[in-house]
Specification:
Blueprint (H helix, E strand, L loop, with lengths): L2 E3 L6 E3 L1 E4 L11 H13 L4 E3 L8 H9 L8 E6 L14 H15 L4 E6 L8 H14 L2 E7 L3 H14 L6 E3 L13 H7 L3 E4 L18 H5 L9 H19 L4 H10 L6 E4 L4 H8 L8 H10 L17 H4 L1 H5 L1
Parallel strand pairs: 3-4, 3-10, 4-5, 5-6, 6-7, 7-8, 8-9, 9-10
Antiparallel strand pairs: 1-2
Helix pairs in contact: 1-2, 2-3, 5-6, 8-11
Length: 337
C-alpha cells in the first residue's frame, strides 16, 4: 500500500481508504464480519477509514467503533454530518445547533474522543457557510475534531467556503470528497481543479460507479442495483450508453490483463488531484479482490484509450451529475421568483 499527504492536513494516508457505507442495515448486517473486514483492511496497510452518521442511521459508525477498540491511533478516522438523521426538521444541515449535537453522537458511536476529519456531507442551502465554519472551528479548538472537509460540493461552493473562511478567520475545509469514476468525469472540469488551487486533499468515492465497473458479466444486477433501481434501468438512454462503455472498458481491461475493477480504481488514482480513493466492499471476498489491485498503474496509452471511450469532463448519463440537484432550479417557484 502506498501513501500520500492529505492536502494541508499534513496527514499521511493510504491510497486506498476503506468506505463503510455497506456496513450495517444498508449492506452487511453481520457486525463481527464487518469488524474482521476492517481489520483485514488495516493489516493490508489501509490507515484511512471513512464513515458517516447517516450510514444505516449510525450503525456503520458503531461497527467502526467496535473495530477500532485498542487500535484507534493506528488510523485516520473520517466521518460526516449533515444529511437527515430523523423526521425532525432540525436533525440535519449545517447549522450550529445540529453540528454540536451530531458530533457528540458520532463520537459516542465511534467510541473515541476525537475525529481526524469531520466532513459536511452535502451543502446546506438554508445555512450560511460562515455559520457552519464557525461551529466547526469551535470543534477544532475544543480538540474534538482535528480537520474539516466538504463532500460533493460544486466548484463554486468550494470557492465560497474558502473565501468565507479567509474573510471571517475561520478554519477552512482542507479536503473535498467528490464522486469520481471513469463513467462520472464531470468533476474533472471544475471541482478537481478547484481543490488543487486551494491545496485540498481529495478523498473520492464511487470508483466503481455503484457497481457498473465491478467487472460483473451483467453490471445491472446485484445488491447496488436492487437498492438503486433507476440507476440501472436500461430503458433510460443514459444507462444504455453506460452499458456500451462498460463493454468497451471490459475489453480494454482484458487486453491489459487487469480486472476491470482494478483498472477503474487505478484510473481514479492517476488524476493528480486525488489523494485517496474510497473502496466500499460489502463482503470479505469483495475486499480481498479490491486489495489485490493496490499496485495497479495505468500508462499513458491506456489512459488515452479510456478518454476515447469516455471523454474527459463528462458523465455518460446526465442524471448521474449530482450538481443537477440544485434547489434554485428544482423548485419552479424559486425559478420564477
Amino acid at each position: 500500500m502506498k501513501y500520500r499527504i492529505l492536502g494541508a492536513t499534513g496527514l499521511s494516508v493510504s491510497e486506498f481508504a476503506l468506505g463503510t457505507m455497506m456496513f450495517g442495515a444498508m449492506g452487511n448486517t453481520d457486525h463481527d464480519e464487518s469488524v474482521r473486514m476492517i481489520h483485514t483492511a488495516m493489516d493490508a496497510g489501509i490507515n484511512f477509514i471513512d464513515t458517516a452518521d447517516v450510514y444505516s442511521k449510525g450503525e456503520s459508525e458503531e461497527i467502526v467503533g467496535k473495530a477500532l477498540k485498542g487500535k484507534r491511533d493506528k488510523v485516520v478516522l473520517a466521518t460526516k454530518f449533515g444529511l437527515p438523521m430523523g423526521q425532525d426538521a432540525n436533525q440535519s444541515g449545517g447549522n450550529r445547533r445540529w453540528i454540536i449535537r451530531a458530533v457528540e453522537d458520532s463520537l459516542r458511536r465511534l467510541g473515541t474522543d476525537y475525529i481526524d476529519l469531520y466532513q459536511m456531507h452535502r451543502p446546506d442551502p438554508n445555512t450560511d457557510i460562515g455559520e457552519t465554519l464557525s461551529a466547526l472551528s469551535d470543534l477544532i479548538r475544543s480538540g474534538k475534531v482535528r480537520a474539516i472537509g466538504s463532500s460533493t460540493f460544486p466548484a463554486e461552493q468550494i470557492v465560497e467556503a474558502q473565501w468565507a473562511a479567509d474573510k471571517h478567520g475561520h478554519h477552512r475545509f482542507l479536503t473535498e470528497q467528490p464522486r469520481y469514476s471513469i463513467l462520472n468525469r464531470t468533476n474533472e472540469s471544475a471541482v478537481l481543479p478547484s481543490t488543487q488551487r486551494y491545496g485540498m486533499g481529495v478523498l473520492s468515492y464511487g470508483p466503481l460507479s455503484s457497481g457498473w465497473l465491478s467487472g460483473k458479466v451483467d453490471p445491472t444486477t446485484g445488491n447496488r442495483a436492487s437498492l438503486q433501481t433507476r440507476a440501472f434501468d436500461l430503458s433510460i438512454p443514459g444507462n444504455q450508453v453506460k452499458l456500451a462503455a462498460v463493454q468497451q472498458l471490459t475489453q480494454l481491461a482484458a487486453e491489459t490483463e487487469m480486472p476491470l475493477a482494478h483498472l477503474a480504481i487505478a484510473f481514479v488514482l492517476s488524476h493528480p488531484a486525488i489523494t485517496s480513493v474510497l473502496i466500499g466492499p460489502r463482503k470479505p471476498e469483495q475486499l480481498e479482490d479490491l486489495l489485490a489491485g493496490a499496485d495497479a498503474v495505468l500508462n499513458e496509452d491506456i489512459l488515452d484509450w479510456i478518454d476515447e471511450i469516455v471523454p474527459p469532463g463528462t458523465d455518460l448519463n446526465v442524471a448521474d451529475n449530482t450538481f443537477l440537484m440544485n434547489p434554485a432550479i428544482e423548485n419552479k417557484r424559486l425559478r420564477r421568483r
